[in-house]
Amino acid sequence: MSRIAIVSAMHPELAAVLAWLPQTQKHTVAGREFVLGRWHGHDVVAVLSRIGKVAAATTATVLIERFDVRQVLFTGVAGGVAPLAQVGDVVVASAFMQHDMDASPLFPIYEVPLYGRSHFATDAVLTAELALAAKAALAQGVLDAADLTDMGMDNGQVNRTVQVHQGLIISGDRFVSTRLESQRLQQALPAALAVEMEGAAVAQVCHDYGVPFAAMRTISDRADDDAHADFLKFVDQVASRYSAAILDHFFTQRSR
Ligand code: SAH
């Protein structure tokens, strides 16, 4: 039976899923706890990768080599870089790249040396399924606009409806937490919707093994001077509600 992996970087991003996942078995490999279970009849393995590209790549490799996963889903939070990616929105990745990869002048900036590419596309079918699940979950209201207003995170847009976007997510080993850095990223990479610290690494490992990969990130902050405070509030209070609600729709859709 084909097993699907559910990966988040940090516990608050996956807490609701881990608390809920029934009939689990746990295995520790490389210091990470891999939780095997079933979700609406599907074999899943859930794991926390820890933060950053190396930690994420190790986790993805163990999932494929030791747990024989045939598909990988990443769910977590990210900083919004494009103006449209506001706190509370969901971004489903169509591709990833590393914004801190630079082996120039030997290779063009952003290109991963010896791969001849900077972008790693996500799997089109899996991504479409995830986007559908995200839209269905948001339509049922994972988060009220009032929740964001209560947290002081509505960016002055009271009652704005949260949205699902699809596009490029950029990854790097930096928590982007100044307006200046966020603006620089936006100018250098205008297609980028959101920034985080793991996705491009998992995308590259999945590319190497030919394993389909999809990812969704809820926007926890705007990668600006308020990013740290907004991030902390969001991960604790709402991040895993999104993961649980969207994945529940995802596995329900699959069972039909
Ligand atoms: N533990 C630290 C910060 C964690 S790093 C703290 O509590 O202060 C942030 C995590 O969320 C990473 O896993 C990354 O993928 C994601 N993330 C959210 N907002 C981000 C941003 N503005 N820049 C980079 N990564 C971000």
Brief account:
By secondary structure, the protein is α/β, with parallel strands linked by helices. The chain is 38% helix and 28% strand.
Bound molecules: S-adenosyl-L-homocysteine
Radius of gyration: 17 Å
End-to-end separation in angstroms reads: 17 Å
At CATH's second level, what is the architecture?
A: 3-Layer(aba) Sandwich
Main sheet strand line-up: 5-9-8-6-10
Mean pLDDT: 93
The CATH class turns out to be Alpha Beta
- Beta-strand portion reads 25-35%
In oligomeric terms, what are we looking at?
Answer: single chain
Largest sheet: 5 strands, mixed, barrel
CATH topology: Rossmann fold
The percentage helix is 25-40%
- Poorly predicted segments: none
Count of runs of 4 or more consecutive helical residues: 7
- Shape estimate: globular
Write out the CATH superfamily name. Answer: Nucleoside phosphorylase domain
**Number of separate strands:** 10
Give a verbal description of the structure.
The chain has 256 residues and is α/β, with parallel strands linked by helices. It has a single domain (76-255), classed as 3-Layer(aba) Sandwich (Rossmann fold). The chain has helices at 11-20, 53-66, 124-139, 145-150, 179-188, 199-209, 227-255; strands at residues 3-8, 25-29, 32-39, 42-48, 69-80, 90-98, 120-121, 164-171, 192-196, 213-221. The chain has a five-stranded mixed barrel with strand order 5-9-8-6-10, surrounded by four helices. α1 (11-20) packs parallel to α7 and α2 (53-66) runs parallel beside α6. The structure holds S-adenosyl-L-homocysteine. The site of S-adenosyl-L-homocysteine (SAH) has 21 residues, from β5, β9, β10 and α7.
